[in-house]
Design brief:
heterodimer, A: mainly alpha, 11 helices, 79% helix, B: 282 residues, D-Maltodextrin-Binding Protein, domain 2, 2 domains, 8-stranded mixed beta sheet
Chain lengths: 227, 282
C-alpha cells in the first residue's frame, strides 16, 4: 500500500502526461457545467424570487428535491435521450465531453438555485421596494439584488462545482471513459481498478481529493463571509 | 411494543444464522459475469452444498490480483498468458480448464471494412486497420484485451490512435459504446449473445483457432480448513460435478454460449486446448 502511494506521488511529481490530461478533462468538463449552471441559474432564481412568496417556496422545495437526484439516474436518462435511437440521437453528443457537462449541469443547477433562492428569500422586502421607488430599471434591479447575495452565489458556485467534479454515475454512462477524450478522474479511478494499476488509480484519487477539498474550502470561506 | 421487540430479535437471530452460512468469494471476469452464467447456475450450488458464493466481476488481470492479495479464494479467467505467469509465480494453484467458447468480431451490419470476406481473424483485423474503420477497444487488463493485442500484433498493423477508441470498461459497456459509434469490436460470444437484442451490431467474422477462448478455474494457495473445503467444493462442482450440466444447459438469447471442457482432454496447463474437432467453427 505505501509502495503504491509512493509510486502514485511519483506519477504526480513527474508530471505523467496521461494523469494531467485526465485532470484537465475533469476540470474543463465541470467548469463548463458550473458556468452554464450560473448563467441559467441566476436569472431563473431571480424570476422565482420575484414571483411571490408562494412560488418561491415551491421553487425552493423543487430545487431541494432535484438536488437529491441520483447521478446514475441523470446519466441513464441522458443516455437514452442521446443514444442513436433516442429522441436527441441526431445531436451526436453521446460519449462527448459536452454530454458529460450537460449531465453535470443537471446535477449542479438545483444546488445553485436552492442556495441562492434561499438567500434572496431572506433579503428584507424593503430592499426591493427601495430600488423600485428610486426608479431603478428591472434589469439593473436584478443586478443590485443578486449583488446583495454575492457570497451566497459564490459558495453555491463552489458547492455546485464539488457536486459536478466528484460525480461518477453520469460521467461514466454518458462519457464512456474513452481514453484521451472522456476519461475523467472519477471514471478513471473507478474503472482502472479493474486493470489493477493501483498506483495510477491512487494518484488520480489524490488529485481528485485535493481539487474537491480546495473547492470545498473556498465554499466555506465565502459562507463565513456572509453577514 | 413487546411484540415489536420480539420481532426484531427474531430478525436479528435470522440475520445471525445467515451470516454463519459459509461464503466462498470468487473473482471472475466481466465477460463471465455479463453473460449471466453465474447468476443462473450458482444458486444450484448453494442449494446442493449450503455454501453461498460472492462473485467479484473484474478484468482477468485484477481477478488474478485479487487471489494474490487473498481477497478471493477461487478465480475464473480467460487469459492464458496472464494465468501462466501467475502459475509460475505461485500465486494460484489447482489450475484446470473449465469451459471454452470463441471470440467474435462484431460490427455494424453495413461492414464498411468488408471483414465478412476475411480469410481469417488476423486478416479481419488487418482490414479494419487498412480501411480506417473505428475499433472500440476494451483498454483494460482483460483476456479479451490480451487477445485483441495479439491479433493487432499478428496483423502487423493497428488503427491510427483516433480510430482505436479505448474505453476501459467491461465487455457490456464496450459493446454499448461500439454500438453507438457503429464501430467494430472484439467480444466473447457469451456476452455478445446476452447483449445482442439491445444492439444493432452483428457478428461479421467468426471461427478459426485464433479466436478460441478458453476459461480456467483455480484456487488461492494457502487455504485451510473450511475455506479450503468450500473453495474446493465449488471448483469440483463446476469442473467435474453437477455444474457441468448446468453450464452446458445455459443459454443466452436462445443460444448455447459455453462448451464444457471435454472430460479426458488435458486441462491442467494454460496452453491446453480442447480437441480441435470440438471447437465449433460456425
Amino acid at each position: 500500500m505505501f509502495a503504491e502511494i509512493g509510486r502514485a506521488l511519483a506519477l504526480i511529481v513527474n508530471r505523467d502526461v496521461e494523469v494531467w490530461q485526465i485532470t484537465g478533462v475533469s476540470i474543463a468538463v465541470s467548469t463548463a457545467a458550473v458556468i452554464a449552471a450560473v448563467a441559467l441559474g441566476l436569472p431563473l432564481t431571480y424570476a422565482l424570487a420575484r414571483s411571490g412568496p408562494r412560488s418561491t417556496r415551491i421553487g425552493i422545495w423543487a430545487a431541494h428535491s432535484a438536488a437529491a437526484l441520483p447521478t446514475v439516474v441523470v446519466g441513464l436518462t441522458l443516455y437514452f435521450a442521446l443514444s442513436a435511437a433516442g429522441p436527441l440521437g441526431w445531436t451526436k453528443l453521446l460519449y462527448t465531453r459536452t454530454a458529460m457537462s450537460i449531465g453535470q449541469l443537471v446535477l449542479a443547477l438545483p444546488l445553485l438555485v436552492a442556495v441562492v433562492l434561499g438567500a434572496l428569500h431572506r433579503l428584507p422586502a424593503s430592499a426591493s421596494e427601495a430600488l423600485i421607488t428610486h426608479g431603478v430599471t428591472p434589469p439593473r434591479r436584478m443586478g443590485w439584488l443578486l449583488w446583495e447575495v454575492k457570497s451566497a452565489i459564490a459558495s453555491a458556485t463552489f458547492l455546485a462545482f464539488s457536486r459536478a467534479f466528484t460525480e461518477l454515475g453520469s460521467a461514466l454512462i454518458v462519457g464512456g471513459n474513452i481514453r484521451g477524450a472522456t476519461r475523467t478522474l472519477t471514471t478513471y479511478v473507478a474503472l482502472e481498478y479493474n486493470r489493477g494499476d493501483d498506483a495510477r488509480a491512487i494518484a488520480l484519487g489524490l488529485i481528485l481529493l485535493v481539487v474537491a477539498l480546495i473547492a470545498n474550502g473556498l465554499m466555506h470561506a465565502f459562507m463565513t463571509e456572509q453577514p | 411494543m413487546k411484540r415489536a421487540v420480539l420481532a426484531l430479535m427474531c430478525l436479528a437471530a435470522a440475520a445471525g444464522c445467515r451470516s454463519k452460512q459459509d461464503v466462498v468469494r470468487m473473482a471472475t471476469t466481466t465477460s463471465v459475469e455479463n453473460s449471466g452464467l453465474l447468476a443462473r447456475i450458482l444458486p444450484a450450488f448453494t442449494q446442493d452444498t449450503r455454501v453461498s458464493v460472492e462473485v467479484l466481476a473484474v478484468g482477468s488481470g485484477q481477478a488474478l490480483n485479487l487471489l494474490k492479495r487473498g481477497e478471493a479464494a477461487v478465480g475464473l479467467t480467460h487469459d492464458p498468458a496472464a494465468e501462466a505467469a501467475a502459475l509460475s509465480a505461485g500465486v494460484i494453484t489447482g489450475y484446470r480448464k473449465i469451459m471454452f467458447n470463441d471470440f467474435v468480431v462484431v460490427g455494424p451490419p453495413a461492414d464498411p471494412a468488408g471483414i465478412a470476406r476475411s480469410s481469417d481473424a488476423v486478416d479481419a483485423f488487418a482490414r479494419i486497420a487498412d480501411r480506417d474503420a473505428v475499433f472500440v477497444s476494451r483498454g483494460d487488463a482483460s483476456g479479451t484485451y490480451s487477445r485483441e493485442q495479439e491479433l493487432w500484433t499478428l496483423a502487423k498493423r493497428r488503427p491510427v490512435p483516433h480510430r482505436l477508441v479505448e474505453v476501459g470498461q467491461g465487455m457490456g459497456g464496450t459493446l454499448r459504446v461500439a454500438n453507438e459509434m457503429s464501430a467494430y469490436t472484439l467480444s466473447d460470444r457469451a456476452t455478445f449473445e446476452q447483449f445482442r437484442p439491445a444492439l444493432r451490431l452483428t457478428i461479421l467474422y467468426e471461427g478459426g483457432s485464433a479466436l478460441l477462448n478458453t476459461y480456467a478455474l483455480f484456487l488461492r494457495p494457502g487455504l485451510t480448513g473450511r475455506g479450503l473445503a468450500d473453495a474446493s467444493a465449488l471448483a469440483d462442482w463446476l469442473t467435474d460435478g453437477a455444474g457441468r450440466q448446468h453450464i452446458a444447459a445455459f443459454v443466452a438469447n436462445g443460444q448455447r454460449v459455453f462448451e464444457v471442457w471435454p472430460l479426458g482432454t488435458p486441462r491442467g496447463s494454460p496452453v491446453d486446448l480442447p480437441s480441435p474437432a470440438l471447437v465449433h467453427v460456425r
